[in-house]
């Protein structure tokens, strides 16, 4: 669950990146966030991860009130969120398996659990054959699927994807969104930032449009892809 | 934290050392040189003070009494001397004893003594050993106020030299230790910086998936500690070799030894535990501290 109430963010440089934004994304929802470059989309994501704090207003994520959250509780918050980046951010020196297992290791999960969980999420994104490959041996779409598996592996309540299709071929973009949709159908809330209007039109659903730091549009659209 | 977690973190620390082996080797060398410089100068300082202490203990203040002092007065002065602060030992040295030893040391000039007959030209005296030779001036000033004191002979010049020498040694030592610790920490902190830089992607992902600050920092801490530990170990070996060979060489120089006294030279076998402890613990601590300081700066978690 994500809730912003009258939230503003002003960077120390004086830029007003978000202006009195209010929105709510319920558990189990899927929402696209669209907007031109510099609109404030990444700023919103940083806010949800408590990388930055709101200058004004209230931010709630998965039951945490972020303005009241102590620094040493940030890891706890982030363990309830999975994140996917445009540029994948896989660790080049680690295999697919280790890139995913790494997440569980750094949150001190039991070894037994890691051994069971990692192959499972790899199978969810259909990359069993690439388990021991290194990121440089994968295509863009495959890399992003590894990144999605990594975001999924600690069973987060919310997945945030910042332009996950930005660096991959358009035809593969649909696969990625399909994958995120599938994950959403299993109960995980998904928030996906994108530039690609075709994609949004195709899938439909909740669309939040941000312009110059303000929400100018927040509606549910029927997609052209009826599934 | 679970055992598997600790194993993972220590493993990461070891990996860090290997991945940054060039930088780790650089900090290893700097630490080694620093530890050696500090260690060897501390050992030299210990020996110097031990030798100075040995020489000091041989020095005494002699208080000569007036010739007409009665026996009661003499013993009263003895008691008074014992109450003076900084006085460690008071020995009576009668003029008869002094005369006998004088005669003996000047046996070739027997003639001189014969002309004196039974007349003893010397006076009674007290020989005093002080605790802290640096305080000798004050002690003598107190003794001077006593009655029946004819004169006082004290090794002022010698004392001053020793005290000065010790002071200089201490300052040089202190400055050296401080400089070496700072230089080592700066170098180690740069190694950590390189290590953090080469793993910045991992660190960023760790932060995003909710690794705790401690978890992120720990491998770097281990990395510094490992480097420091091995530097300490090698420093110990080198010091042992150098020190024992210096002592062995000194043992052959009997002329020099008669001045400083072999007993005042510290044997490595008497101090190797302290030396090993200081080197290894010191190396590991400087290593760990140096990296911890910079982790805060570069990780920014
Ligand atoms: N760390 C920062 N310090 C100062 N200003 C910033 C910072 N990060 C972003 N901004 C500014 O805030 C505004 C919103 O930036 P943001 O990154 O949220 O945009 P975006 O919607 O994600 O754009 P894009 O689609 O290009 O990724 C921009 O004007 C940007 O220049
Ligand atoms: Mg952005």
Report on the architecture of this protein:
- The complex is a heterodimer of chains A (about 230) and B (about 300).
- Chain A is of the alpha/beta class and about 230 residues long.
- Chain A has two domains: about 1-80 and about 155-225, 3-Layer(aba) Sandwich (Rossmann fold), CATH 3.40.50.300; about 90-155, no CATH class.
- Chain A is built from seven helices and ten strands.
- In chain A, the strands form two sheets. Chain A has a six-stranded mixed β-sheet with strand order 6-7-8-3-9-10, with helices on both faces.
- Chain B is of the alpha+beta class and about 300 residues long.
- Chain B folds into two domains: about 5-55 and about 160-300, no CATH class; about 60-155, Alpha-Beta Plaits (2-Layer Sandwich), CATH 3.30.70.
- Chain B has a four-stranded antiparallel β-sheet with strand order 2-3-1-4.
- The longest helix of chain B has about 45 residues, at about 155-200.
- The two termini of chain B are about 20 Å apart.
- Chains A and B meet through helix 2 and helix 3 of A and helix 1, helix 8 and helix 9 of B.
- Magnesium ion (MG) binds near residues 41 and 42 of chain A.
- Magnesium ion binds near residues 41 and 42 of chain A.
């Amino acid at each position: 669950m994500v809730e912003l109430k009258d939230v503003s963010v002003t960077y120390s440089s004086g830029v007003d990146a978000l202006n009195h934004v209010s929105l709510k994304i319920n558990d189990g929802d899927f929402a696209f966030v669209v907007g031109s470059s510099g609109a404030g989309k990444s700023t919103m994501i940083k806010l949800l991860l408590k990388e930055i704090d709101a200058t004004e207003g209230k931010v709630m994520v998965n039951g945490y009130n972020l303005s009241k959250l102590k620094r040493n509780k940030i890891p706890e918050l982030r363990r309830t969120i999975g994140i996917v980046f445009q540029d994948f951010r896989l660790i080049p020196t680690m295999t697919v398996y280790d890139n995913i297992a790494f997440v569980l290791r750094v949150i001190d999960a039991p070894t037994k659990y890691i051994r069971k969980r990692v192959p499972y999420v790899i199978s969810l994104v259909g990359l069993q054959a690439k388990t021991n490959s290194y990121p440089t041996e994968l295509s863009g779409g495959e890399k992003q699927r590894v990144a999605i598996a990594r975001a999924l592996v600690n069973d987060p309540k919310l997945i945030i994807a910042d332009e996950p299709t930005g660096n991959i071929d358009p035809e593969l973009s649909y696969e990625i969104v399909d994958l995120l949709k599938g994950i959403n159908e299993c109960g995980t809330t998904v928030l996906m930032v994108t530039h690609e209007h075709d994609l949004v039109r195709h899938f439909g659903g909740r669309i939040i449009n941000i312009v110059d730091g303000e929400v100018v549009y927040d509606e549910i659209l029927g997609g052209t892809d009826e599934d | 934290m679970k055992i598997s977690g600790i194993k993972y973190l220590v493993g990461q620390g070891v990996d860090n050392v290997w991945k940054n082996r060039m930088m780790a080797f650089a900090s290893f060398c700097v630490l080694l040189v620093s530890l050696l410089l500090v260690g060897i100068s501390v050992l030299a300082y210990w020996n110097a003070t031990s030798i100075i202490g040995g020489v000091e203990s041989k020095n005494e203040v002699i208080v000569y009494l007036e010739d007409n002092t009665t026996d009661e007065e003499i013993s009263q002065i003895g008691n008074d001397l014992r109450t003076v602060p900084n006085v460690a030992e008071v020995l009576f040295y009668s003029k008869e004893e002094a005369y006998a030893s004088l005669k003996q040391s000047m046996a070739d000039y027997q003639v001189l003594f014969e002309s004196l007959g039974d007349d003893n030209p010397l006076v009674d005296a007290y020989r005093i050993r002080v605790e802290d030779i640096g305080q000798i001036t004050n002690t003598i000033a107190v003794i001077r106020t006593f009655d029946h004191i004819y004169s006082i002979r004290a090794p002022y010049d010698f004392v001053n030299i020793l005290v000065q020498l010790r002071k200089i040694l201490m300052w040089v030592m202190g400055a050296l230790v401080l400089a070496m610790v700072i230089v080592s920490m700066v170098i180690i902190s740069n190694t950590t910086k390189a290590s953090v830089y080469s793993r910045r992607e991992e660190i960023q992902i760790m932060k995003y998936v909710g690794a705790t600050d401690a978890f992120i920092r720990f491998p770097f801490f281990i990395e510094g500690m490992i480097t420091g530990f091995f530097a300490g170990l090698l420093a110990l070996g080198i010091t042992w070799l150098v020190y024992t060979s210096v002592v062995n060489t000194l043992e052959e120089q009997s002329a020099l030894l008669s001045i400083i006294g072999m007993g005042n030279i510290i044997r490595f076998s008497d101090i190797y535990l302290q030396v090993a402890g200081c080197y290894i613990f010191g190396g590991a601590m400087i290593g760990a501290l140096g990296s911890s300081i910079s982790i805060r700066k570069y990780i920014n978690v």
